[in-house]
Design goal:
Length: 191
């Protein structure tokens, strides 16, 4: 008869099994052997969902787990620039990539590997937002010294709300939609 070895601890456990055959009232010679039961592989690092912008550098995340000597496989991020890797001790640093016009959401799965035993994986999500692009139209000031000029921005990629600036990023109008008009402008350059 067989049995299922179970173990809920974090380190391997070795037990000695003694087998003594008996038949017809007679006892045979005992045989002893050791069985080592390795624990289920686990990750102890808490992985957090996160959002990044296209082109942003994502820092490496150090992975910890059990048993001692465990390594990790990281999968699921190829579409955002995170190559699948095996036998590592960290989620590697990478450059977040999204060349589309909508956010890309992927599920990254980290699976601990040791002793050929079962593993408890952990997953988290990474969202990579596209680089916002826009076009605009202008209306010139009608008379010298006037302030009836305007710029109308139309965001082509990205997800609202948007922040707009007409002075090179010194001041912003926050949480706006698209299209967005900037009006009452005087003659001059705007960045």
């Amino acid at each position: 008869a067989g049995f299922t070895a179970t173990h809920t601890g974090l380190s391997p456990v070795t037990r000695t099994i003694n087998v003594t055959p008996s038949a017809n009232g007679c006892t045979g010679n005992s045989v002893s052997y050791d069985i080592t039961v390795n624990p289920v592989n686990r990750i102890s690092t808490t992985l957090q969902n996160a959002s990044y912008c296209n082109g942003e550098t994502v820092s490496a995340v150090t992975l910890n787990g059990s048993p001692s000597g465990v390594t990790f496989d990281v999968t699921g991020g190829a579409s955002i620039g995170l190559a699948d890797v095996t036998g590592v001790s960290e989620v590697p640093s990478f450059t977040a990539t999204n060349l589309g016009s909508s956010p890309v959401v992927v599920t990254i799965t980290v699976t601990p590997q040791a002793n050929g035993c079962a593993s408890v994986s952990q997953s988290y999500q990474i969202t990579v937002n596209p680089t916002p692009t826009f076009n605009f139209s202008t209306t010139d000031v009608s008379c010298f010294g006037g302030n009836n000029g305007s710029i109308n921005f139309n965001v082509l990629t990205g997800q609202a709300p948007f922040d707009y600036s007409r002075n090179g990023g010194t001041n912003y109008v926050n949480n706006q939609t698209s299209p967005y008009p900037m009006s009452s402008l005087t003659a001059g350059g705007y960045t």
